[in-house]
Write a structure and sequence with these properties.
This protein is an all-alpha fold. Helix content is 75%, strand content 0%. The termini are far apart.
Length: 296
């Protein structure tokens, strides 16, 4: 009797849980490691997991400088810089709020395309989505109260991180995708180069900032191995089975997971306007990604 085929819905649920839990893992790991340390170990462990996959899949890793140079830039904007910024930001604000701010990534992508990638012209719908997302961000931050109880530097760090993601995505589409590399190889190269660049910054400061404990060790391991290795396998499998539109919608679901886990495990609280702003940001992302058919 043949084994039942696993559906993409199961993979989607697992991926949403892993990436949504990443904000919890960052918060816990940040109690033991400095931001540069969280970023470095996240990338190093992720690269190690992907290297094992590459060996199993028998893919070849390119040796030409052009491929490594392009993946280095992608690694800086998709991994090294935003990972460190999120780790810093979550020292001062809740993991749930960080997850909701991360939902602005599709909106930031449209903004970057308008400014830096003129050859990838945004559509009218994407511009509308950008506008809605900006309003949502202002509501989420409670702009009428300044930044409320939130540290302005921490909020700025998270917004800058999403801006990095917004630059990285169109950059990869324009410069890395044409290389024709298998997904595991491309991500491995991005994480490896980004980890190498981050290592001196990590070694220059304290190696740890808190007591070493099993919770923090498990969090940084899960963040690296699950958040990159397993997560990317699931992500690209969903693309193969259900398409890229369905796969990318995980960015809409993961803030919900982040908020719920933050409240249950870390005892975080959240303000009404943060929830409302998060919903508006998600709406803006849905519009920017063309998911609301009545607006087309």
């Amino acid at each position: 009797m043949s084994k039942p085929k696993r559906t993409w819905q199961v993979d989607f649920a697992i991926l949403s849980l892993i990436w949504g839990a990443s904000f919890l893992f960052i918060a816990v790991a940040g109690k033991m490691l400095p931001p540069a340390g969280v970023a470095f170990w996240r990338m190093a462990l992720g690269a190690a997991a992907l290297f094992i996959m590459i060996r199993v899949q028998r893919h070849k890793i390119p040796t030409n400088w052009d491929a490594w140079r392009k993946t280095l830039v992608a690694g800086l904007f998709m991994s090294a810089i935003p990972f460190a910024l999120f780790a810093y930001g979550e020292l001062h604000i809740s993991s749930g709020l960080a997850g909701m701010i991360n939902a602005a990534t599709p909106v930031m992508t449209v903004l970057v395309i308008m400014v830096a990638f003129r050859d990838q012209t945004p559509t009218r719908i994407q511009v509308i989505g950008l506008s809605v997302g900006i309003v949502g961000t202002l509501v989420l931050l409670g702009i009428w109260n300044g930044f409320g109880e939130n540290d302005p530097l921490a909020v700025g760090a998270l917004l800058l991180a999403t801006l990095c993601y917004g630059f990285g995505s169109p950059y990869i589409r324009k410069n890395v995708s044409p290389l024709g590399l298998p997904a595991t190889v491309a991500v491995f190269m991005q994480l490896t180069t980004a980890a190498v660049v981050t290592l001196p910054f990590y070694l220059f400061g304290p190696l740890t900032t808190g007591s070493t404990n099993w919770g923090a060790l498990a969090s940084i391991t899960a963040l690296g191995v699950l958040g990159t290795g397993l997560a990317y396998i699931l992500y690209y499998r969903i693309i193969d089975e259900a398409g890229s539109t369905i796969a990318s919608s995980v960015t809409i679901v993961q803030p919900v997971v982040a908020v719920i886990l933050g409240m249950i495990i870390l005892g975080e609280t959240i303000n009404w306007y943060e929830v409302l702003g998060g919903v508006i940001i998600i709406l803006g992302a849905l519009v920017a990604q063309g998911r609301l058919k009545f607006l087309r």
